Amino acid sequence: MRRTRGLSEGWLSRALLIGSALVFLGFFLLLPLIVVFSEALKAGVGAFAAAVATPDALAAIRLTLLVAAISVPLNVAFGLAASWAITKFRFPGKSVLITLIDLPFSVSPVVSGLIFVLLFGANGLVGPWFAAHGIKVIFAVPGIVLATVFITFPFVARELIPLMSEQGREDEEAAISLGANGWQTFWHVTLPNIRWALLYGVLLCNARAMGEFGAVSVVSGHIRGETNTMPLHVEILYNEYDFVGAFAVASLLATLALVTLVAKTVLEWRYDVNSGGRH
Fold first, then answer.
1. Which of these, 204, 61, 209, 78, lies nearest to 144 by C-alpha position?
2. Separation of first and last alpha carbons in the chain
């Protein structure tokens, strides 16, 4: 009798927990996505296409892709170098490096953007030197790239460091003992072992780079057609009561989020299969 009651209570608890999770996800995730796409197509496909094809919208899309194309490879290079150094070598300051990698997670993006303004602005620490040499950083593409790189650089390193720490150094030491140099060891031993985690980190880094708002908003200057990325363009259109245009561009970002979610699930499955179920 007690066992039957326990099974019944256990089933009821699971049902309540699963139901609560589904309601929460439906209200905070599914419903906003439905609203975004429904508002974007509210005036028809023609109005949606016209809103996306405006010069300002196209400029925002191009700038977003450009910033991601620059910042993601830089963060891949940094993430690989930092992960290799942290997991394969012992050196003074390793704990400091690990802490610095996590710094963007603990600093507000707005504060991060303000830091770059204080450094590279017209009255900043090094801004006058750049201005004297005809280099514009703040309110230009370089400042947006710098802010985006700072916000996104933990993603690749944070995916690789736990995995490479778990794998240890035995494979690399074996390759070196067989005559391989450092570059050969990296390409033929280390990189194949971390490829799925690396792709996962690149995916997250790219999604954050395209969707970053706070830091980019501070350093961009909101110049239409020049320094507005897609999130900033959505804000401007919404403030101007151009709801169709705002939701049309927002739907592109939402589509990116959905594609990222699907790719993330596939990579997690592939990584689980290749690691034998061990994360």
1. 209
2. 40
What angle (nearest 5°) sits at the alpha carbon of residue 190, between those of residues 86 and 177?
Answer: 95
Q: Cα–Cα distance between 167 and 82 in angstroms, integer? A: 16
Q: What is the mean pLDDT of residues 126-149?
A: 91
Per cent of the chain over pLDDT 90 is 37
The pTM of the full predicted model, rounded to 2 decimals, is 0.84
Closest by Cα among 106, 124, 105 to 114: 124
Angle between helix axes 191-211 and 154-167 (nearest 10 degrees) is 160
Q: CA-CA distance, 86 to 89, in Å (whole number)?
A: 6
- Over residues 211-243, the pLDDT tens digits come to 999 999 999 988 888 999 999 999 999 999 999
CA distance readout (Å), 201 to 79, 143, 158, 206, 268: 9, 23, 8, 9, 11
Residue scoring higher pLDDT (28 or 232):
232
Taking alpha carbons only, the member of 217, 26, 39, 226 closest to residue 117 is 217
Q: Which of 183, 193, 211, 261 is nearest to 25 (CA)?
A: 261
Helix segments in 153-213, DSSP class H: 154-167, 170-177, 182-185, 191-211
168-172: list long-range contacts, CB under 8 Å, 24+ apart: 169/87, 169/88, 172/88
Do 234 and 246 meet the contact criterion of CB atoms below 8 Å apart? yes
